[in-house]
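In response to the reviewer comment on reproducibility (Comment 2.3), we provide here a single inverse folding case reported in full, input and output, so that an independent group could reproduce the run without further information from us. The structure tokens appear first.
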């Protein structure tokens, strides 16, 4: 073969590979940049709604009774963002030791920040309204300074709860990829179920009982959820997880604590735009494809 032709083909191959690599790096950077911008916008939106919500008596002036109502709960009461979960901590100044201490906190907070997590933290000035004894609520004669710390999380679990919510609201199957190596799913049977405070929680099956991992996020109580249970045999395998709306008349057809594989949720059971949704069932597409879709 002509040496010049060999050199030409080699240079051309190197050029093609270089362009491909540059393209991959560029689009990966672009995707990361867009995701960062998205969570920044979400954080500003959440903060703006928290300080303006009707549970706040006036801008950034919080009511103590209402704060006590949600303190220590997973509820995101002031504003709910579907994709991103948020946690609010309000610090009050302790005059006994002259330090700022968390007095109220509520919302979504993952058990651990893993490699698939994105978290954005912001701090804002706030106040606690001091009631005016001479006038009925919500009149205040004074206010005490607070510090509001807002953490916004983008995790697979938060996205999963959003998928469940969208499947119910839209009456349409939703899907996402789940990777056991970064999702915190143990190499043993695991499940997702509602806790006593109506949050969806991730748990591992240990000795026949549920051991919650600490990953819980509140999902509105009007969304019926069917318990999910699956044995993730290969922890690092990435497979699609689907949220399927099931007709109210067919919820009883779901077998056991959860119908793990999507092939077991028959097309006739799946709710469409005009059907009443009886439950949202999570399922795994074991072979990488979901056979049915509404």
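Designed residues, in position order:
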């Amino acid at each position: 073969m002509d040496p010049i032709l060999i050199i030409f083909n080699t240079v051309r191959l190197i050029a093609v590979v270089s362009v491909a690599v540059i393209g991959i790096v560029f689009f990966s950077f672009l995707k990361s940049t867009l995701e960062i911008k998205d969570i920044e916008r979400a954080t500003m939106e959440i903060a703006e709604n928290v300080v303006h919500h009707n549970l706040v008596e006036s801008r950034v002036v919080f009511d103590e009774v209402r704060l006590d109502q949600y303190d220590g709960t997973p509820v995101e009461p002031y504003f709910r963002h579907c994709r991103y979960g948020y946690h609010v901590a309000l610090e009050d100044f302790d005059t006994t030791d002259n330090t700022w201490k968390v007095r109220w906190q509520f919302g979504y907070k993952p058990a651990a920040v893993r490699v698939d997590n994105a978290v954005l933290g912001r701090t804002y000035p706030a106040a606690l309204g001091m009631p005016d004894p001479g006038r009925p609520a919500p009149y205040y004669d004074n206010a005490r300074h607070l510090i509001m710390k807002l953490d916004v999380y983008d995790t697979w679990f938060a996205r999963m709860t959003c998928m469940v919510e969208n499947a119910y609201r839209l009456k349409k199957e939703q899907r996402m990829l789940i990777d056991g190596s970064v999702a915190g799913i143990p190499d043993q049977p695991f499940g997702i179920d509602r806790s006593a405070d109506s949050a969806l929680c991730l748990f591992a099956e240990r000795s026949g009982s549920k051991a919650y991992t600490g990953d819980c996020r509140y999902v509105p109580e009007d969304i019926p959820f069917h318990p999910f249970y699956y044995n993730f045999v290969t922890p690092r395998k990435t497979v699609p997880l689907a949220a399927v709306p099931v007709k109210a008349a067919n919820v009883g057809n779901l077998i056991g604590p959860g119908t793990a594989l999507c092939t077991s949720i028959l097309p006739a059971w799946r709710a469409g735009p005009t059907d009443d949704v009886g439950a949202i069932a999570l399922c795994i597409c074991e072979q990488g494809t979901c056979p049915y879709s509404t």
